[in-house]
Amino acid sequence: MNLYIASDHTGLELKSLLVQELTAVGHSVHDLGANSYDANDDYPDYVTPCAERVAAEPDALGIIIGGSGHGEAMAANRVKGARAVSFYGPRQTLDALESEGTTGTDGYDIVRIARMHNDANILSLGARFVRIEEAVLAVRAFVETPFSGEGRHIRRIGKF
User: Fold this and answer.
1) The overall pTM is greater than 0.85
2) Could you read off the pLDDT of 91-115 as tens digits, one per residue?
3) Boundaries of domain holding 107
4) Which is the catalytic residue, given 117, 144, 150, 153?
5) Number of domains in the chain
6) What CATH number should be reported for the domain holding residue 103?
7) 2 DSSP β-pair partners
């Protein structure tokens, strides 16, 4: 799979580890920076080009990383055709589902549902909130889950 990945200085370490992980399992990974630590860099300078590349290639996916993942997702979602979703770890998902009485999840269902129902094409991670192991599992779930292609989901996506 063709994957684009970008981060600001806060996500630099996590991005490097994810590039290694994804490359090792055979994905074509395009690292769009940052490539060195600069505490004054701005995430839109890296995230926006990543979102543009993903939006231009219907079969590509993107991963963006910053401190919180919030601003990164907002910047990416300003690009027409980009559909970024944030992930903050399995515990948040499990807590929400358990409060609804749902059990039997591994905590990564929120990532899978974003792909299946919303055809999310960019995963935004907050390096300050997601452990490395959690990020790896979230990225795997994101990359391995296809869009359902169901009519109702296609209809909804067409509205934004």
Assistant:
1) yes
2) 766 566 566 665 556 778 889 999 9
3) 2-157
4) 117
5) 1
6) 3.40.1400.10
7) 28
